[in-house]
């Protein structure tokens, strides 16, 4: 997994930047919305005061959010394409899933572009594209996360790959956390006593899900840097 000697670290910034850009976009949009008086100061991780979409829906926060999210969609799609190619060089099982991963990654990127493009626009059709853009982005990205983490876990278990700090376990853990967040949203929101409480729960869980996605890309970037993935791809 160490690849060939030489300048082989050129690809690990892809998951790093692709994962960080949406997180930076959400935080900057939230900060700008508060600074411009578009919303009251709050901590969405603690009280679910605002969703990511609402924090980035208007004026300057919207422009900044789009400027960061749209290139992130391209970088994330490239990440899944390269990740599938890299894993196919080592994995003897799950090859069908690895062939599907690039398509899932590209669909995730397309829906993230759809979401970012129409965020802040008015009209029923635009609301539909925003809503389902983010839903399908999360869904297709999560499927890519499952395939990548499951394959790496099998490779580490079989001794084919030696991963630093057992990063395969961290990736599986982040997938499990993301699933738990999704289940919590399905189970907790119907029990909410009011519409306001339901919205706060949904908002808070959305921020935590986005954080889990970001951490997954960061761990993947760490793994790519260790694995010298550029050398492995070039050697194929």
Characteristic terms for this protein:
single chain, 236 residues, disordered N terminus
Model description:
With 236 residues, the protein is mostly helical. Helix content is 77%, strand content 0%. The chain is globular and about 55 Å long. It has helices spanning 13-35, 44-47, 52-55, 59-88, 95-118, 124-157, 167-188, 195-227, 229-235. It has 9 helices and no strands.
Order of helices and strands: HHHHHHHHH
Radius of gyration from CA coordinates: 19 Å
- End-to-end distance: 13 Å
Mean pLDDT: 85
Shape: globular
Structure, briefly:
The protein has helices at 13-35, 44-47, 52-55, 59-88, 95-118, 124-157, 167-188, 195-227, 229-235. The chain is mainly α and 236 residues long.
What is the secondary structure topology, with strand pairs?
Elements: H1 13-35, H2 44-47, H3 52-55, H4 59-88, H5 95-118, H6 124-157, H7 167-188, H8 195-227, H9 229-235
Helix pairs in contact: 1-4, 1-8, 4-5, 4-6, 5-6, 6-7, 7-8
């Amino acid at each position: 997994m160490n690849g060939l000697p030489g300048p082989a670290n050129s690809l690990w910034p892809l998951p790093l930047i692709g994962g960080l850009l949406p997180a930076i976009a959400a935080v900057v949009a939230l900060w700008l919305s508060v600074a411009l008086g578009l919303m009251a100061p709050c901590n969405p991780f603690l009280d679910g005061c605002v969703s990511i979409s609402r924090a980035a829906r208007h004026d300057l926060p919207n422009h900044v959010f789009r400027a960061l999210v749209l290139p992130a969609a391209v970088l994330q799609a490239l990440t899944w394409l390269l990740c599938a190619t890299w894993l196919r060089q080592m994995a003897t099982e799950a090859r069908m899933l690895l062939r599907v991963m690039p398509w899932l990654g590209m669909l995730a990127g397309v829906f993230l572009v759809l979401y970012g493009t129409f965020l802040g626009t008015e009209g029923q059709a635009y609301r539909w594209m925003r809503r389902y853009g983010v839903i399908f982005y999360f869904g297709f990205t999560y499927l890519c996360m499952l395939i990548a983490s499951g394959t790496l876990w099998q490779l580490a278990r079989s001794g084919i790959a030696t991963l630093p700090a057992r990063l395969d376990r961290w990736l599986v853990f982040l997938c499990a956390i993301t699933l738990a967040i999704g289940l919590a949203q399905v189970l907790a929101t119907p029990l909410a006593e009011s519409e306001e409480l339901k919205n706060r729960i949904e908002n808070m869980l959305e921020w935590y899900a986005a954080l889990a996605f970001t951490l997954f890309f960061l761990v993947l970037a760490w793994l790519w840097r260790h694995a010298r993935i550029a050398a492995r791809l070039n050697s194929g």
